[in-house]
Each structure stands twice: as structure tokens, then as C-alpha cells.
Design brief:
Blueprint lengths: L4 H24 E3 L3 E2 L7 E3 L5 E8 L2 E11 L7 E4 L9 E3 L3 E4 L5 E4 L5 E3 L8 E4 L5 E4 L5 E4 L7 E2 L4 E3 L6 E7 L2 E11 L5 E5 L12 E2 L8 E4 L5 E4 L5 E5 L9 E7 L5 E7 L9 E2 L6 E2 L3 H5 L14 E4 L7 E4 L4 E3 L9 E3 L10 H7 E6 L2 E2 L4 E5 L4 H9 L6 E5 L4 E5 L6 E3 L6 E7 L4 H4 L12 E4 L10 H12 L8 H10 L10 E2 L2 H7 L6 E5 L2 E7 L7 E6 L5 H4 L2 H9 L9 E7 L2 E7 L6 H5 L7 H20 L3 E4 L8 E3 L5 E3 L39 H16 L16 H10 L3 H4 L4 H5 L1 H14 L10 H9 L19
Parallel strand pairs: 27-36, 38-45, 39-43
Antiparallel strand pairs: 1-11, 2-8, 3-4, 4-5, 5-6, 5-7, 8-9, 9-10, 11-12, 12-13, 14-23, 15-20, 16-17, 17-18, 18-19, 20-21, 21-22, 23-24, 24-25, 24-26, 27-28, 29-30, 31-37, 32-36, 33-35, 34-35, 34-37, 40-41, 41-42, 42-44, 43-44, 46-47
Family: Belongs to the protein kinase superfamily. Ser/Thr protein kinase family.
Keywords: ATP-binding, Disulfide bond, EGF-like domain, Glycoprotein, Kinase, Lectin, Membrane, Nucleotide-binding, Receptor, Serine/threonine-protein kinase, Signal, Transferase, Transmembrane, Transmembrane helix
Subcellular location: Membrane
Length: 817
């Protein structure tokens, strides 16, 4: 019997192998009734080799949201090669409790936690499904033929053996917005019905196509884009013409994972990833003679006639032509990205743009033209001069409030003026023109101090320097707070900046510490306090003129008689107010602390208060109202978040917002609450019924935070949009008498036009008006924690972030007595 043992053993081994093979085959076919969930052991179906998986992939940065996707499963990055899109061609993202089923009737269906269908290829009658080793997920009929496959509806990536055919609407690649955001991006690759392979910039989030930036220039009904199994990608037509797109360059496809992708920057690139664990395991660009299309996106896309170009508006594109083949977007001097992660949103000035109410002499004093080398924005010309010299070209742009950039060509003595937004910017060695950017003059202290960091300081302490100190609290607490503030740091200025500031104080009077005046000096400067500019709870303001070389106009606030304890804090408050530096805050020039007299000396605001500006006989221009809104927001942002000691104003209203000769908004009366008598705060009680500018928490037994200023800003923002007071009880239509109520109703009904009725400029900018109203309604939320910070408010006003629909504050007065 012994001789027969080896044969019996071989028989057993053969049967064992056949059993293993059958088990593997059973796993390959996904049977009807199978399902996947985002979490747990059944979250994906693998291909036989395990190279690819189909199932739920968590969205980067959002652990509660999942894509239905195909990905490379053997690499740590789990790189996505396909993802499902809805009927509106938007990526499908679902919560963790969703489920994907291959139903008993052969329908693949993705359903949300409420059992509503989110996505389906709508191809019933499948007998089974299979994840192939090519990266293609297919539904098969009973006859073994494919009824649907992911290769037929690509997202932004194609894989070896995949083919894009001509004239099929779905046979396109659409880039993502950025690598971590799967929303439809700004570029599209299409195999057109005329047999042409074309790359288009897209007016995201629509499907509007701008002029093509690359085309194969071929014709033929049978054209197709082929990614063959050797790693070669080419476009072929019916007449046999072939156009190489990318090439694997002779590498062994068995040693690499391979994919090609229309990247977020609009370049179609081929990537390789080594399968060997000994190799350096990263996706790398396949470097060959033809490795990416187009070979320089910055140069290719600049010829289109609309859109921002390869990068966002007001930015410029440079291309690294080495093996990295990367696109770099940059902002010019004195500009910054709206969003550093989403650079396609473009750049904005970090200074206040030139007002068209600025005369030529003032413009020359405030702005200058600075060259930027090797950069060009070929579009956005609106005026051309010739013959002209470079100095004249500079001057003509500086004095023109529309002009943001001037371009001078010495060979033809020609000057072009360009206005914002600048588009299709690119950096190249062959730029033969002098490009000049308008920026604030380097000696303009206002611009130097305006761009502090907006980073929230987690360890800052919250001191209320506004009227809130008299809605509760004790004199002792006030004195302690004031004493702490006396030793505080300069607001919003870094240690390095402080050193620069201290060293420059001798040469720049605009940033000197407050000057000590005598009472006689101020009495003489105001002609014995003759001309009253205004009065309020904190005192009376008089117009004056200093006897200095500039005959500086001033506003002198004469503080009423103070309580004995409060007098001790006068110097503390002056110290605090005097150490704030921002272009949207009224500057304290000096003070008088002589005997029983307490006076504060401010810079004079030529155009008075917002109250006079907004509620006068003539309606101010829309652009000026927008400028004021942004200025007030930035001033409050500085007080709330850019000071080492937070300042809460607590009395934001039109009377406390002043306008300089350029109609730049400046916040006044911050930090004065401790200088008032306690009973003076009773002046606020008369506006409880109509709310005025006070946040609801003033009338509740809860703490006061910076959100009270946010609420007040919301009221003012509505007044700026609608050009009317919040409360106008004399209006015949009672529903319109309280602006905050009426604006909410108009917003909910989609009738923003009613709020700006008769205002042609605002109607022309109705989208911005709607955005401002939405921001205001967020600011007016009853619950303080629901209101945005001033940082978020400025971002929403600027359009840097999307604004979700604000909750309906159904009762503005529910909590008032």
C-alpha cells in the first residue's frame, strides 16, 4: 500500500485546492440581498486580488460623512478612483447610518437613515455584482453581460483598460474643487461628438463652459480616449489618427498601480504607485516626454476670454516645469488669499481700496505704484494711453479710483489701466512689460497698522469696556478691572511690532501715545467750547483746532462730573483707549486730567456720524454703504479678537460710528463706560419695547459677551442695506415699522427687492444685498451662542465663506419684559 500513498496525497491536495478556488469564486460574485454599511465589518466589497474596494470611504476632515466610492485598497492612502454622483451631477455623501443594498429584484440602491433613496444607477434586473481587479465595479445580468459599470460613469479619474467613448454625455471627467473636497471643480475633459478631445474651464458650480484651453483638434464619430493595459493613454479617431496623451514610458505595469486624473488645477496627469513595499510608496507623476496635458496650465489657460484663469481672481499662476509639474497660485504684494486652502477663490486687498470720493492730491498722498516682476494679467484692460511715459502711467492709475494695476510697455510707450478683479494672472520669463500694482504708501501708518492677525487668542481675558459694566457689578470690580488693564499690552500688536512702534514714535505723530493737554489749551482750541458737535451719556463733544503746524482739527469730549471712585480709573481708561491702533477706530490724540476737569481729545471726523449720513435727506450711494458696513465689521473684529485684552463696546449705534473725509467708518466711544455715572445707563430703558440696538441678554440675568456687539451690528447692517432706521412707528404699514421683523419676513419670502425698493444701485447688486441681510439675521439671533463671531461676520460679508440659511427668529421679543 505504501507506493499508493503519494498519489492519494496528491488527490487530497487537488481536492483541497479546488475547494479553495470555489470559495474564492463565491466571494467574487456579490449576490442579491447583499448590503454594505459605512461602519462595521461589511463596509466594502473587495476585488479578487484585494487591489481595489467598492464601498464607503470616509470624507477627509468629516468623520460622520461617507462617499460611495472605488479606491486602491492595498495602499495606505486608500486613493479614490471613482465616486458616485447624484442626478444633479454632485458627489453623493451620506451619514454613517446609511446602507447600500443589492436588492432581491437586482437593483443597487443607496438609502439614507430614513430609508429614502439617495443614489441608484436605476438599472434593475441584475443577477449579481462584481468588483473587478481593474478597478471597475459591475452589475451583471443572468446572461453574464454587464448591465452597468463604474467605468461608464467616471468622476475625475480613469484606470488602465478604461475607455471614454465619443458623444456620450456621461463620458466626461470633472475635476474636484480641491484634493479633499469632492464637489465639482472648475475643469472638465470631454470627448465631443465631433471627435475632438477638449479641456474646458467651467463656471463652477454650473456646467457653463468657457473657451477651451486644450484640444486634440481631431474629427471622427468613432473617436475615443483609451487607457490601455500597458499604461499608455491615447486618443484615437476612426481614420486611424492617434494623439498621445500620456505614456507609461516602458515601465512594467505589473510593478505599479496606475491611474490618470484631471486634477483640481485643470491638468490631466498620469500617476504611478509602486506595488513593492521595498520601494518608496507614494504616488508620483509618470515622467516622460508627454506626462501631462497641458504641459503648462498657466500659459494654456490665459487665452480664455472669461473666468479667473488657472488660479483665482487677483492672483497669479506659476508652473514648476520639473518632475513635480505643480501649479502654484500666489497673491501680489498687499493682497491675501480669501481662503488659503481654497486658493481658487482668489485674493483680496489687505488694505481699504481707494475711495472715489478721494481727491487727486489725497490719492497721491495715500497710494503708490509698485512693480511686480515677471507677472502679467492679460485681461481686464479698460483704458489705453499712447504715447506716454512710465511716470505718467503711474500717476494716471494712482488718481483713478477704478484703477488697480497699470501696465507699461517701453517699446511702444503704451500704458494700460486695469481694474479689479484681475484675471488669468500668470508668471513667465517672457513678460516684456512693466506691471505696476497700486498699494498703500509705505509711510502710511494707517495701512501699516491695519493688517493685524485675526487668529483667535485662546488665552485672552474678556474685559467689558462698554456700557455693560453698569448693568450689574460693583465699583470695586470696576476698579480692579481698570487696574489690571493699566498693565495690559498694546492691543493687536505683536512684540516685534511694539518695538517698531516705539522706535518710530519720534517720527510719526499718528502713532504717538496720547498727549497731555492743559485745560487752557483746549479751551483756546475750542474757542471757549463754543461749537457743539454732539452730546450723549458720556458727555458733550466740541469742535476745535490745535495751534500746531498743521492746524489739526479735533473733537474734544468733555466728560461730566465723575464719581469719586470712577475718577481713579480715568487714567486707566485713557491708557487702554490710547493703545488701540486700527483704521476703523477713532484715534485718541490726547486728554486733560486737571482738577475736576476730564476731557478726551479725538481726531476730527469730517463727515460726522453714520446717523447723519444714513438718515439724511439724500440716500447715500450703495457702494459707500457697503464700505461703511465692512469698516464697522473690521473695527469690531479688531476690538473683539485682535487685542490681547478683549474690548466689548456695548453701545454700537449709528451715533457712535463716525466717518472721515473718505467716508471710512470709525468706531467711537469704546472704553468709556467706566467714566459714566451709574444712573446714566437708565437712558437705555426707554428702548426696551422696540429693542433698538440692544441685544436681548441685556434684559436677562445672564453674562454679557462680545455677542452683544454682534447683535447691534446686525441692526446697523440692516439699516445700511435698507437706508432707514430700525424703528419707524409713523410708517402706515405696521408690518414695516420694525425693520428687524420686516427684513426677516422679506428674506423668508425671497423678496429682498422690497427692502431696497427704489434703490437702483442696491437692486443692481441684489445678490450682495441678500447676502448682507442673511448675515444680519444671523447676528440678530436671540440666543447669543447662535450668533457668529465678528471674524465669521467679516468672512461672510466678504463672500469668503458660504452663508447657511439663518434660523427664523420667530419671536424677537419673547424674552423681553
Amino acid at each position: 500500500m505504501a507506493p499508493h500513498l503519494p498519489w492519494r496525497f496528491l488527490q487530497f491536495l487537488l481536492l483541497l485546492l479546488l475547494g479553495v478556488s470555489s470559495a474564492a469564486q463565491a466571494q467574487v460574485n456579490i449576490t442579491l440581498g447583499s448590503s454594505l454599511t459605512p461602519q462595521g465589518p461589511n463596509s466594502s466589497w473587495l476585488s479578487p486580488s484585494g487591489d481595489f474596494a467598492f464601498g464607503f470611504q470616509p470624507v477627509e476632515g468629516n468623520t460622520s460623512s461617507y462617499l460611495l466610492a472605488v479606491w486602491f485598497d492595498k495602499i495606505p492612502e486608500k486613493t479614490v478612483a471613482w465616486y458616485a454622483k447624484s442626478s444633479q451631477d454632485t458627489p453623493v455623501q451620506v451619514p454613517s447610518s446609511s446602507v447600500l443594498r443589492l436588492t432581491a429584484d437586482g437593483l443597487l440602491s443607496l438609502r439614507n437613515p430614513s430609508d429614502g433613496e439617495v443614489w441608484s444607477p436605476r438599472v434593475p434586473g441584475a443577477a449579481y455584482a462584481r468588483m473587478l481587479d481593474t478597478g471597475d465595479f459591475r452589475l451583471f445580468g443572468a446572461d453574464g453581460k454587464a448591465k452597468w459599470e463604474t467605468f461608464d460613469v467616471p468622476a475625475d479619474t480613469i484606470l488602465p483598460t478604461q475607455v471614454l467613448l465619443v458623444g456620450q454625455q456621461d463620458k466626461v471627467l470633472r475635476s474636484r474643487l480641491i484634493a479633499t473636497d469632492y464637489a465639482n471643480g472648475r475643469f472638465l475633459l470631454a470627448v465631443q461628438s465631433d471627435g475632438n478631445l477638449v479641456f474646458y474651464p467651467i463656471a463652477e458650480p454650473t456646467t457653463k463652459r468657457y473657451d477651451a484651453y486644450w484640444a486634440s483638434n481631431t474629427v471622427g464619430n468613432g473617436s475615443r480616449l483609451v487607457f490601455n493595459e500597458t499604461g499608455r493613454i491615447y486618443f484615437t479617431t476612426t481614420n486611424g489618427t492617434q494623439v498621445n496623451i500620456t505614456s507609461a514610458g516602458g515601465v512594467s505595469m505589473g510593478d505599479f498601480f496606475n491611474r490618470a486624473m484631471l486634477d483640481p488645477d485643470g491638468v490631466f496627469r498620469q500617476y504611478l504607485y509602486p506595488k513593492s513595499r521595498k520601494a518608496r510608496s507614494v504616488w508620483s507623476l509618470q515622467w516622460t516626454a508627454v506626462s501631462s496635458i497641458p504641459q503648462n496650465i498657466c500659459q494654456a489657460i490665459k487665452e480664455t476670454n472669461a473666468g479667473s484663469g488657472a488660479c483665482g481672481f487677483n492672483s497669479y499662476c506659476s508652473f514648476d516645469g520639473t518632475q513635480n509639474q505643480t501649479t502654484v497660485c500666489q497673491c501680489p504684494e498687499h493682497y491675501e488669499f480669501f481662503d488659503k486652502e481654497r486658493k481658487y477663490k482668489g485674493c483680496r486687498p489687505d488694505f481699504e481700496p481707494q475711495s472715489c470720493y478721494l481727491d487727486e492730491a489725497a490719492a497721491v498722498a495715500k497710494f503708490e505704484m509698485t512693480p511686480i516682476n515677471g507677472v502679467d494679467w492679460p485681461l481686464a484692460d479698460y483704458e489705453e494711453y499712447s504715447p506716454i511715459d512710465e511716470n505718467e502711467c503711474r500717476t494716471l492709475c494712482v488718481i483713478d479710483c477704478f484703477c488697480a494695476t497699470a501696465v507699461f510697455r517701453a517699446s511702444t510707450n503704451t500704458c494700460w489701466k486695469k481694474k479689479l478683479p484681475l484675471s488669468n494672472g500668470n508668471m513667465a520669463a517672457d513678460v516684456d512689460r512693466t506691471v505696476l500694482i497700486k498699494v498703500p504708501r509705505s509711510n502710511n501708518s494707517e495701512s501699516q497698522l491695519s493688517s493685524g492677525s485675526t487668529k483667535w487668542k485662546e488665552d485672552k481675558k474678556y474685559w467689558i469696556l462698554g456700557s455693560s459694566l453698569f448693568f450689574g457689578g460693583s465699583v470695586l470690580v470696576n476698579i480692579l478691572l481698570g487696574s489690571i488693564l493699566l498693565f495690559g499690552t498694546y492691543c493687536g500688536i505683536s512684540t516685534t511690532s511694539k518695538k517698531k512702534l516705539m522706535s518710530s514714535q519720534s517720527s510719526s505723530s499718528s502713532i504717538l501715545p496720547p498727549k497731555i493737554f492743559t485745560y487752557n489749551e483746549l479751551e483756546k482750541a475750542t474757542s471757549d467750547f463754543r461749537e457743539v458737535l454732539g452730546s450723549g451719556a458720556s458727555g458733550t463733544v466740541y469742535k476745535g483746532q490745535l495751534q500746531d503746524e498743521h492746524a489739526t482739527s479735533i473733537a474734544v469730549k468733555k466728560i461730566g462730573k465723575l464719581q469719586q471712585e470712577t475718577e481713579k480709573e480715568f487714567m486707566v481708561e485713557v491708557q487702554t483707549i490710547g493703545q488701540t491702533f486700527h483704521k476703523n477706530l477713532v484715534r485718541l490724540l490726547g486728554f486733560c486730567n486737571e482738577g475736576t476737569d476730564r476731557l478726551l481729545v479725538y481726531e476730527f471726523m469730517t463727515n460726522g456720524s453714520l446717523n447723519e449720513f444714513l438718515f439724511g435727506d439724500a440716500r447715500p450711494h450703495w457702494s459707500l454703504r457697503v464700505q461703511v458696513a465692512l469698516g464697522v465689521a473690521r473695527g469690531l473684529l479688531y476690538l473683539h479678537e485682535e487685542c490681547s485684552t478683549q474690548i466689548i463696546h456695548c453701545d454700537i449705534k449709528p451715533q457712535n460710528i463716525l466717518l472721515d473725509d473718505n467716508f471710512m467708518a470709525k468706531i467711537a466711544d469704546f472704553g468709556l463706560a467706566k467714566l459714566l455715572r451709574a444712573n446714566q445707563t437708565q437712558t437705555y430703558t426707554g428702548i426696551r419695547g422696540t429693542r433698538g440696538y440692544l441685544a436681548p441678554e441685556w434684559f436677562k440675568n445672564i453674562g454679557i459677551t462680545s455677542k452683544v456687539d454682534v447683535y447691534s451690528f446686525g441692526v446697523i447692517l440692516l439699516e445700511l442695506v435698507c437706508c432707514r432706521r430700525n424703528v419707524e412707528l409713523e410708517i402706515a404699514d405696521e408690518e414695516r415699522s420694525i425693520l428687524t421683523y420686516w427684513a426677516n419676513d422679506c428674506y423668508r419670502c425671497g423678496r429682498i427687492d422690497l427692502l431696497v425698493e427704489g434703490d437702483d444701485e442696491a437692486n443692481f447688486n441684489i445678490k450682495k444685498a441678500e447676502r448682507f441681510v442673511a448675515v444680519a439675521l444671523w447676528c440678530l439671533q436671540e440666543e447669543p451662542t447662535m450668533r457668529p463671531t465678528m471674524l465669521k461676520v467679516t468672512q461672510m460679508l466678504d463672500g469668503a465663506v458660504q452663508i447657511p440659511t439663518p434660523p427664523d427668529p420667530s419671536s424677537f421679543i419673547s424674552s423681553l419684559p
